[in-house]
Amino acid sequence: MRELLCETCERAVRFLESLPTRRVAAFRDAGELAQALDGELPPSGLPASEVIAWLDEIGSQGTVASAGPRYFGFVVGGALPAPLAANWLAAAWDQNAFSEVSSPIGAALERVAMRWTLQILDLPADAGVALVTGATMANFTALGAARRNVLLAHGHDVDRHGVQAAREITVVVGEQAHVSIFKSLGMLGLGRDRVIRVPADDQGRMRVTALPALNGPAIVCVQAGNVNTGAFDPVDAICDAVRADDVWVHVDGAFGLWARASSQFAGLSNGLERADSWATDAHKWLNVPYDSGLAIVRDANSLRGVMSMDAAYLPDPTSRDPFEFTPESSRRIRGVEVWAAIASLGLEGIRLLVERNCRQARRFADGLRDAGNEVLNDVVLNQVLVAFGDDRTTADVIRGVQRDGTCWCGETNWGGRTAMRISVSSWATTDEDVERSLAAILRIADDVRAQPRLGG
Ligand SMILES: *Cc1c(COP(=O)(O)O)cnc(C)c1O
Question: Which helix (H) or strand (E) holds 218?
Answer without folding.
Answer: strand 218-223
